[in-house]
Structures are given as structure tokens and as C-alpha cells.
Amino acid sequence: VQLVESGGGLVQPGGSLRLSCAGSGFTFSSYTMTWYRQTPRKEREFVALISSNAGTTNYADSVKGRFTISRDNAKNTVYLQMNSLKPEDTALYYCKPFSIAYWGQGTQVTVSS
User: Fold this and answer.
1) What angle do CA 87, 54, 22 make, to 5 degrees?
2) pLDDT tens-digit profile of 80-109?
3) 7-40: buried (b, 16+ CB within 10 Å) or exposed (e) per residue?
């Protein structure tokens, strides 16, 4: 299994970023995919989920209405569009297949003025 997250960076409050996660080594299109995030002061927390056929999505209350998860099974990639970013969204963001115990290296998102 390989997961490569990208798209993080430094953004001002209220700004937007789009994260990408390319998966390989497993049948990407068969798996529900998730995004998690972690800060040094908190345990890793769930952010969003999308079912294998993109028919179902679910979000943490803290990001609902601001973040959108999507996927392109032809490209083995899952995305996280993040709008109206807040300083408390600052974290290392990871993607993960729902039922596979493997984490990539993550991509850092920093929201600061």
C-alpha cells in the first residue's frame, strides 16, 4: 500500500486549499476513503469519508459546510477541498483507506495570518 498526500501549504484565514491523495498497491475503487488530521496537541481526528462509489460522504462537525471530499477512481485519487479555513484547521492531514491500517506521510496545512 502506498498513499501520497499533497497540496498542503500556508494559507491565510478564510482561504482555500485542495488536498490530493494518490493511492496504489490496493484496489482503490473498492475502498471507502477517509481524511484524518493531527496536531501535536491532539490525537488524530476524523475529518471526512467517501464511499467507494462516491455515493456517501460524511464529515466531522467541525468541517461540515466548509470541506468537501471527492474522488476520481480512474486516477486512484481522493481530494479534500477546504474552504473558509480557520487557524484551528492547522494540522498534518492524512488520507487512509477505511479498512486498511496504513498511514502515509501526510501533508501539512497551516492557517495563519
Assistant:
1) 65
2) 999 999 999 999 999 999 999 898 899 999
3) bbeebeeeeebebbbbbeeeebeebbbbbbbeee
